[in-house]
What we know:
Helix content of chain B: 40-55%
CATH class of the domain at 5-42 in chain A: Mainly Alpha
Number of strands of chain B: 16
Largest sheet of chain A: 2 strands, antiparallel
Helix content of chain A: 25-40%
Radius of gyration of chain B: 31 Å
Oligomer: heterodimer
Mean pLDDT of chain B: 91
CATH topology of the domain at 5-42 in chain A: Histone, subunit A
Strand order of the largest sheet of chain B: 6-7-10-1-11-12-13-14
Number of helices of chain B: 16
Low-confidence stretches of chain B: none
Largest sheet of chain B: 8 strands, mixed
Structural class of chain A: mainly alpha
Strand content of chain B: 15-25%
Radius of gyration of chain A: 22 Å
Shape of chain B: elongated
Largest interface: A-B, 34 and 52 residues
Number of strands of chain A: 3
CATH architecture of the domain at 5-42 in chain A: Orthogonal Bundle
Number of domains of chain B: 3
Mean pLDDT of chain A: 89
Amino acid sequence: MPLSREDVQHIARLARVGLSERDMEHFSEQLSQILDYFERLQQVDTEGVPPTAHTLSLHNVMRADEEQPPLEPEAALANAPLREGDHFRVRAILEE
Amino acid sequence: MTTTAAVRYETVIGIEVHAQLLTLSKMFCACPVPSLDSPPNSHVCPVCLGMPGVLPVINKHAVELTIMTGLAVNCDIPPEAKFDRKNYHYPDLMKGYQISQYDLPLCKDGRLEIEVDGQTKRVGITRVHLEEDTAKSMHVAAPTGESYSLIDVNRSGLPLMEIVSEPDIRSAEEARAYLQKLRQVLRYIGASRANMDEGNMRCEPNVSIRPLGSEPFGQKVELKNINSFKHAYDAIKYEVARQTQVIESGGRVAQETRGWREDLGQSVSQRSKEYANDYRYFPEPDLPTLTISREWVEEIRTRMPELADAKERRFQDQYGLSAYDAAVLAETRARADFFEASVALGGNDNPARAKSAANWINGEFARLLNADNADIEDSKVTPELLSELLDLLDAGTISGKTAKDVFEQVYRAGISPKRAVQESGLIQITSADEVSFAVEKVIQEHAKPVEDYRRGKEEAIKFLVGQVMRETKGRARPDIVIQVLKEKLNGSP
């Protein structure tokens, strides 16, 4: 199922990825192939099989509400590309 | 504009409320919950920082608090629940997605009863689900003209409960009543501090208007940046007027999010609302689904405290209190508990004690607390101290007027009422002999009213009683004063 140019542009925008003209062609093809795999999966007869969100039959994996020591702020900020005091610094958040 | 609008349009409001849950640790990691004044990025770990390769684990207590909230607002608790990823990019969202719940929330189809102008109304609750909070961003506009944002990740990953109402609310008054009732429920069950000014309870009303009698909804506008019940009320009032004006002038209400600006007294347009499918929800692959057994739900139900509405009814039945007194006492769990503890100390089967405890808590005590903008749970007055004061009153050791002074001393210093009475010599004079001296003095000093009374002007005795009370500094019992005065006045001149 070939994806339209608009679909690819929309997906790229949601992922905050800039695409060149060549990228466009490249990813259009790849994304279409992924959809094709799912098209094939759709052919499997699932009549009477309850839907599931997971392939593992695990349920209710939970932890008790107990604290553990957090990271030292210096460790937390160690890989920050930009920081100011104990804050991460990022480009201005502007409303679209 | 307003008069014609009121006739022709109906307001339709649904409200999303977010409340931070009262847990010790975060939703999907064991980071301790920060306080309001924690230094930035001091309560973070690789999980809530969104580092690669980490795995979330569900906080069981947060799940239970959410189910308890669902039960408190009469929701169904479906046997299956799961978490989903809500994908969007924003610097306060560390992973590029938020773990939330999409199609299988923990609770659904509930209702909350509110009261507005003496009318009871039922507001439907669509769902209650659990998700994680985002980091906090702060905008900086430097003097250099440079503009950037600072991120504090402490809040990221805190357990956040979302409560979504049906579009059943029809006015700003109803919206305020709904929010107040919801806050009361959350506080009663200990699910959240639910303080809007601290940001641990937030609300986003969706407001639209439609011609009265028309079925389809109008275009809704989402209101944000609301930090108090007053903001909610004002923002809704403003929005209804704005939409009415747009429609009346031939325009169309745009689908948008508007932020309330308290300083301007108006809302301003924010980003246009993204469509739901832009979030590309899908089941969270890192978290197995939840199976909610009926046994678990019932076990949570047994832990749920009695709620305000039930307490209000019981206080009337059990203690014979007025509807007003019962409602005021049941307003907060702390006040209700204080009342019941005070009554129990005086012997539970004592309706007079219940009435007097209610009078003190809702009267003098409330007056002092209001003046200090304080809460009963933080007061120096304890049920034991109030009970001791009521014992002194019942025994006739102090007068009602003295009791007020003593109570204020107890309130300010937390001292025992007995001690306060002894130290200040405020013990009530109950013997006629002790009163006699003051009565003799007053009769001698006020010849005119004495004459008046003896000539048959009964009213004159009131003045004389007042003078005796003054003479005894309010410690004499009025009935004894009257008795002694009458004896002396009616006897030999």
